[in-house]
Amino acid sequence: MNAPSMTSEQPERKSVSRRGFLAGLVALFGFLWSLMAVYPIFRYLYPPKSMQAQSNVSSVTVADAKDIPVGTGRNFQFGSIPAILLHTQDGQFHAFNAICTHLGCTVQFRPDMQRIWCACHGGQYDPETGKNVAGPPPRPLAPLKAEVVNGKVVVSRVAS
Amino acid sequence: MMNLPQPKRLWDWLLERLELGPILYFAQNKEVPVHQYSFWYYMGGIILVLLIGQVLSGMLLMVYYIPEIRSAHASILALNSQIDFGWFVRSLHSWGANLMVLFLFAHLFSTYFMKAYRPPRELTWLSGMLLLGLGFGFGFTGYLLPWDSTSFFATKIGLDITAKVPLIGEPMAYILRGGADISQNTISRFFTIHVMLLPLLLLPVLGLHLWIIQAHGMSEPKQGPTAYPSPEEKYEKFFPTFIFKDFMAWVVVLGALAILVALRPWGVGPEADPFAPAPIGIKPEWYFLSMFQFLKLLPPKIGPLEGELVGILFFGLLGLILALIPFFDTGASESRSKAATGFGIFLLAGLIIFTIWGLFS
Amino acid sequence: MNYPVWVVPYLGGSWVIGIMAIIHIFVSHFAVGGGIFIAFTEQLAYSRQDDRIYDYLKRHSLFFLLVTTVIGAVTGPGIWWVIALVSPPGTAFLIQNFTWFWSLEYLAFAAEITTFFVYYYTWNRISKEQHLQLAWLYFGISVSTLIIINGIITFMLTPGNWLTSHNIFEGFFNPTYWPSVLLRLLIMFGLAGMYALITSSRIRDDEAFRTYMLRYSAKWLLPIFFLGPLAGLWYFSNIPQAAIDTIFTGIHASGVGNFSVLARAVYLAMILSGAVIIFAFVGPYLNPKGFSFKAALIFLFFGLMVTGISEWSREMLRKPYVIYGYMYSNGILRDQIENINRIGFLRASKWALASTPTIPEPATMPSATGQGELIFRYQCMSCHTQTGYRSMKRLLLDRDRDAILALLDILHETDPKKNPYIGIMPPLAGTREEMSALADYLATINHPQKRI
Q1: What is the ipTM of this complex?
Q2: In chain B, what residues touch C256 (CB-CB under 8 Å)?
Q3: pLDDT above 70 (res C365)
Q4: Cα(B4)–Cα(C151) distance, rounded to whole angstroms?
Q5: CB B361 within 8 A of CB B354
């Protein structure tokens, strides 16, 4: 015999709370499925290691020693880090990380002052030691190792 | 409706503040005619969903694409071989573009043969033709960006043809190219056009197109004295019946896109070399193939004019007739209606025949 | 190498198996999932005493009968026949090791088909209670056909401890056995729903009942909606690491030669599964009035395509083996490679030996393209064709004979550092003279141009 009317709108025996629970469950799992669509976009936006600048550079040949006279300095790129090379009055080469310890600007060498100087707020560093000698910088510049190899100046990381 | 107190209150709040009443009333009463050609009503919505896909995939591509002459090709290579799912996003964009053009043609010809251009829908038709032109603009400018040899030569040929248009052709091509030769200027200009100018133009034209369609309702092929055999007048509600059918169609089309992308990812040819000669047998993408093939057949000179120029003017004439058809076939005359249908068949047949011919030659 | 070889030009023998097997999957999953559907639905009809559901079921079971017993019965033994022709060593191995399981499976098939014929032809002839019992009997038998064959199929990918213990029960209940049972059951519920939507969409005259049956059928996609990703995760965490690596390589690389087709196929199967579920939601569930017979057909086609792509990617996971870690796709056993390299492939192969005109001593063996062709047929043709699917012509590109030989030398290596194809192709086995003969033969396929 025919059963009582089979309307599709309201399932007879389910209470509102059970219906709500099921709807919530469906929404939750729907969200989990949508993560499957979002995951590739997330991975896509994460650049691969190969695209990042070489941050694990260990040494850089900057220039011929004869091209950097005494009492001058030169900025160069050490991997992804801006760096500075100095040929000081004592005849030695020194190199430092050129990121100012005050607010991160790139420092430069001032031959007239014979000091490493920061244009942003006037901070000054000693070219032989990198020590912060004047202005707002709170700390010395991080040192790099500079040596002359076969007439060329090679800068490398300081052995830690 | 279900007893869900909170969302309902929020909905009412928004309703009151955004004055959505009239829009809701319109949406609840919108109806779609049901007849044997109702299937073609899905075409527009499919194009819209593919367009959204193009915008999203295009935006993602812009994160890694570099519009600089030495880096463009390399950035595409990086997308294809280094970036996770880079091949997926790129192929979505390339295949999405092709599918969109396919459905643009389907939409064009289905609305044409159903005579949906007749008054009062002339503006719908004209804005649609404009959208078609914008679509081709997107395709043409986007195609150059990977800077491989195919795209370089395709652009060169396209711009050379543009230059042949009398009076305005040369200056237009010069401005587009950013000089006498295709160079960095061209990449920068095409990129700007593709990513900013065309989208900005698209928005108001598309808005107009969609607005007028809502205003007039769906065209039925039975309007006018020369209508198709009129079926029993049946309508279905847009919400929820038709729109969920729309959703089903979109799922199928997007699924087809996913299949194309996963099984035939889009590669990239060797980097463009402006000094190398064009590869033998070079052909444009399928949607330009018919025009390309037709132009190949023309003799170098027709009367006093260059053969190619005649060809281009001929295409222009066809386009003009197509655009102005609503003013010719207004539904008042049986003979004009037949002529319009004949012209449509002529155009469609020509496109198909020349495309197939181009594919096999 | 110890059996005659069947040459299928252009399509390749592997696709003959593929087409036969994929069609069978379409139908067998309907047979099992649909059997569960019929049992549950008849239970529903019985408990509600609703004749409308009974009428629907009768029509649905005719559809079921025709599809499963005709196409299913043809393609099932069809697989049997085709795998024996295309891959005799693999088939022989499976028969010899799983003899009792195969016989049990045949018994189950016979019982399954008989039961369903009885079920269909006793409609309205026996009591409702008895008929319901028949439905449940069919359910039990058809599920047993699944759980038996599943052991053999999953063994091929993850033989597990069998590799060392040679204990057939450890081979049967291998690491992917249980995840695969779960995954297949979920797929079967979904397919059952999709087939039922075809018959439900054709209910006429009673709009409310049609809506009810459409929604009921659509809900059969809920199990895979809830448990699909978990089951998939469970499955993938038990497959060989090399297969996982291949998949992840394919996530960032694409194109020919990057072996990325596995990653793309797996990803496509996932996307299309999501699409199927969305389609079920916006189609029959939310909008039964608008869900026509045509839409149901498109939906079924879509769902079957997803199933086919999933099966194809599952098969690809097993590369380069037909029995993982034991037997390569071309029938050569992994442990035989060393011996073959020593004494030569043609000498090591019983059948190939019998079919070559002469096998002279290695020192005087001429570089006959005939011998090269034999080696191609036995070692390469299980996955490649000359000019058709995954063809030599396309893959060898412009290489001339010497460049081909250089490639073959790479393929000969078993060290993954020297041979990047090792994760996806069996190592090429044989003596250098045989490699040379093979290079001669392959060079005739891609007709290399003379380089200036």
Answers
A1: 0.84
A2: 267
A3: no
A4: 48
A5: no
